[in-house]
Amino acid sequence: MIQNPKQTQNRFLRGGNPFPTRELPVGAIARLGQGMLYDLALSPDNEYLVVATGIGVWWYKLATMSPVDLWNTGHGGISVLSFSDDGKWLATAGNDGCVKVWDVSRRACITQIERWVKNNQLTRQDRISRIAFSPDSQQLAVSGMNDYIVDVWHPETGEHLAKINADHQVELWQYCALVHPITFSPDGQLLACLSPHGENTPDGPEAESISVWDVSSGTRVASLTKYPSGYLWESFCFSPCGESFVASGDVDDKLQAWDTNSWKKIRTYPDYGADRMVPSYSAEGVLHAAAVYDSINTITVWDIEHNKKIYTSENIAEPVSFQLRNGKQLALVSSHEISVLSPDTQQRVASSHSHASGNILSSLVFSNAGKTVTAAHWYDSIWHWDIAAPSHAPIVFKPGGIKYYVYASTEGKIYTLSLIGEGKKTINVWEVGTPDSLIAECELKESPTYRALAFAPENHLLSYGDDKGRLHVLDLQSGKEIYTDRLHRCAVVTVKFSPDEQLLASTGALVPDFRLRDIKRKEDISGPLNDRIQRAIAFSPCGTLMAANTQEEILLWDLTQRQIQLVIPKPERWTYQGFWHEILAYSPCGRYLASGSCWVRGMENSLVLLWEIVNGKNIATFEGHTSSITALTFSENSKLLASASYDGTILLWDLKPYL
Question: Which of 126, 74, 82, 175 minimizes the C-alpha distance to 647?
Fold first, then answer.
């Protein structure tokens, strides 16, 4: 489906904030964070660096690396972007399969293309991997993460020009996050991409080959190499003269070159011990490459042809995305910094940011009497936000390890849990404050592979569920495991202690798979929810009620009477497919329940709903997140609600008008 929107792009509020911000949705008083990081690109005029995020496209002034604009690019967030060589157009794409072409000077979307086709046999053709303009800006190629199809459109008219790999209807269910690089030859006649090779298996094809296609005729002119599928290919590029083609990937020879006349491999270049090598030709036709050393947080740019080091950028923590342009200029965004390195001055211009760097906001709590919000980023760190200054950068606490969670005790203390150590066999518990202090260190028998963790601060208990369906409960004071039982059919995805810390609720990945266990007696508590609950569970503050979700409704279970007290059905206006709500949270006063939805195709934004417990009435609906809700929490006085999302932001909702 092709659209040519006439409405120009809305401008954004600047005010007196240190950086521009998207207009807040109705009911929200603040947005914390600049959105999840995905991709970046340098503008051809060398004036700007643009960054693709979960809430839109950020524009940074290159000279100062300061943010100057934010484009609201629509629902689903932006995961990949690319400039045309003349700088006239910017193409963006997200997880919804929608590709948009923007007129940069007017900040207007001129073409919108839906790659996904309803009822197509490639039902998951919506995730975009790479987009690339031809050098003359007359063609736009798009590859997907879940298939090998490459579509080519005219960027201004939206006319479909070609479909590459059209005969290879292979859908990648297992390898759904692989990069499928694409590139045009200098004359725009050839397109290089990946193609399946051999028979298809449940995990994908037997092998992949780098293929070169004639775009106008749709014929393959070369098949350059063959590797087992699943290798990570970084990028492809042609030399400016078009006589050489270079590919880089996670293979034995990270950097390889072919002659485009004979399509024979002419050279294999050294990888300098790097984890990744990304090639780029200079305007003079000299091959350079950025060598990424993940273990020492370093990127070195090499003149490959002359075996000469150009410059090195050190202390780059967890690079998310980078671009080597014209063989020399390196732009990169890491977990907490955006920077550009110039080969002429040998200087690095950098600035800090509050973008989330590929890490889920796993949990959040209000702290400091409701003045701050503390959020855990699953694989990154703990962020403390000042609600009174939402545009200011957060205070970051990184105690080491991975898989962070935050919890608030009844006394208002904040705790964070993380998995650390060689082999990752230790779970540490920290009290977050000034200074942060380690209060427990628990050695485990084996390295846990879990997605669910719970903490009971009063009784110093810790519970986690692993990928084998086992539920573990540990005493942090003694460091001993109280018990381990396999309660679920497969991976445990949710674990929650009741407020009195006597009960433990858990759910499995194969829904419905719910268990409620009495911790002291080590006995299951049976009830009407065991064969109905999906994934979301929440205990009321008094501990007598438990809310849980099913595919069609939210249920309130009276734990004393062991019966369902209230059923909240899915609203009739809810027409989207998939899970309804997967996140639930009770207000501290016990009168309200908040639920957060998944984002699915067709939704403009994910929804946060507020319900009255006494009658199940929906008294407020908030929308503003561009992706699924991952966490919800109320302030101590129940007048504020914080919601976190895969889009990498936290929204604060004012509940006073509805209470």
Answer: 74
pLDDT at 642: 98
The DSSP element (H or E) to which 508 belongs, if any, is: strand 503-508
pTM score, whole prediction: 0.87
- Distance of alpha carbon 296 from alpha carbon 313, whole angstroms: 11
- Judge whether 326 and 290 are in contact, CB under 8 Å: no
Tokens for 92, please give them. Answer: 């963006």
- Gap between the Cα atoms of 160 and 253, Å rounded: 36
User: Helix, strand or coil for residue 350?
Assistant: strand
Six-digit token string for 227? 């590797």
Q: Is the peptide bond before 499 cis (omega within 30 degrees of 0)?
A: no
Say if residues 500 and 459 touch (Cβ distance below 8 Å): no
Spatial separation of the C-alpha atoms in residues 124 and 145, rounded to whole Å: 9
Residue 63 phi, psi (nearest 5): -65, -35
Q: Which residues contact 78 (CB under 8 A, 6 or more apart)?
A: 38, 39, 52, 53, 54, 56, 57, 92, 93, 94
Other beta carbons within 10 angstroms of residue 389's beta carbon come to 12
Question: Which residues are CB-neighbours of 509 under 8 A, at least 6 positions away?
Answer: 488, 490, 491, 492, 493
Query: H/E/C letters for each residue in 380-394?
Result: CCEEEEECCCCCCCC
Please state, in angstroms and rounded to a whole number, the distance separating the CA atoms of residues 367 and 413: 8
Contacts 24+ apart (CB under 8 A), 467-476: 467/491, 467/492, 469/508, 471/495, 471/504, 471/506, 471/515, 471/517, 472/448, 473/504, 473/519, 474/427, 474/442, 474/444, 476/429, 476/440, 476/442
Q: Apex CA 647: angle with CA 644 and CA 651, to 5°?
A: 40
Contact 274, 267 (CB under 8 A): no
Tell me if residue 569 falls in helix, strand or coil. Answer: strand
Residues in Cβ contact with 248 at an 8 Å cutoff, skipping those fewer than 6 apart: 233, 234, 235, 236, 254, 255, 256, 276, 277, 278, 279, 289
Residue 258 pairs in a beta bridge with 245, 265
Mean pLDDT by 10 residues, the chain (659 residues): 32 37 85 92 94 93 90 80 96 87 93 68 62 97 87 95 77 57 97 81 70 94 81 89 93 86 93 90 93 87 92 79 88 86 75 83 89 88 91 84 81 82 75 75 75 86 89 86 87 92 90 87 78 84 92 89 89 69 92 90 85 95 91 96 95 95
> From its phi and psi, is residue 559 left (phi > 0), alpha (psi between -120 and 50) or beta?
alpha
Q: Phi, psi at residue 417, to the nearest 5°? A: -120, 145
The rounded distance, in Å, linking the Cα atoms of 373 and 29 is 14
Q: Write down the residue that tokens 């980023």 correspond to.
A: 377
Angle (nearest 5°) at CA 339 between 351 and 90: 105
pLDDT at 385: 94
Comparing CA positions, the residue from 37, 80, 20, 57 lying closest to residue 355 is 37
Range list of β-strands (E), 154-264: 160-164, 183-184, 190-201, 204-214, 219-228, 233-238, 244-249, 255-259
Q: Is 307 left (phi over 0), alpha (psi -120 to 50) or beta?
A: left
C-alpha 131/C-alpha 323 separation (Å) is 14
Cβ atoms of 654 and 639 within 8 Å: the answer is yes
H helices, E strands: number in the chain: 0, 57
Amino acid (one-letter) located at 248: S
Residue 22: what pLDDT?
65
Sign of CA dihedral 45, 46, 52, 53: negative
For 366, the enclosing helix (H) or strand (E) is strand 361-367
